[in-house]
Amino acid sequence: MADTDPTGLPYRLRNSVSGPHDRGQRLTIVAGTPGMLLLEAASRIERQTLEIILLTARVAELEEPWMPIETAPRDGTPVLLWVGVGMSEPWAQTGRWHNALLTNGWAGWVDTYQDEDLAEPTHWTPLPPAPDTKE
User: Fold this and answer.
1) pLDDT digits 0-9 by tens, 48-82
2) SS3 95
């Protein structure tokens, strides 16, 4: 019988992952054994859990895409803004925050086309990804 550790796994090395053993020896988990299958399953569960977390966050964005303007990025990132509340016809427009646009140090929301200042937007949402235009 081959040398085995307390779990019954052989100490041989073949497509294996090694880790410390409680007696200071190297424990080798051999491919195809219950120990290796358990490690592979744990790794898959960890990856799937992360994917679920990311997808859950994305679903939340899709369910309520408009966020208060106070939470919008102030680093020049283009976003979709909800502008003109209180006017006859509010609208959505792409814009970005611009610091010190004018020589007087003015900062505020500007459109992404001509950098013209916008009426105070009340909400924002990230721009959707650009379409794939490769043919």
Assistant:
1) 988 888 887 777 666 778 889 999 999 989 999 99
2) strand
Q: Is the dihedral of CA 112, 113, 116, 117 positive or negative?
A: negative
Contact 97, 109 (CB under 8 A): yes
CA distances (Å), origin 134, targets 43, 128, 129, 131? 35, 18, 14, 9
Evaluate whether 92 touches 82 at the Cβ level (below 8 Å). yes
CB 28 within 8 A of CB 16: yes
Alpha carbon distance 43, 130 (integer Å): 33
pTM: 0.48
C-beta of residue 13 within 8 angstroms of C-beta of residue 28: yes
Question: Is residue 104 over pLDDT 70?
Answer: no
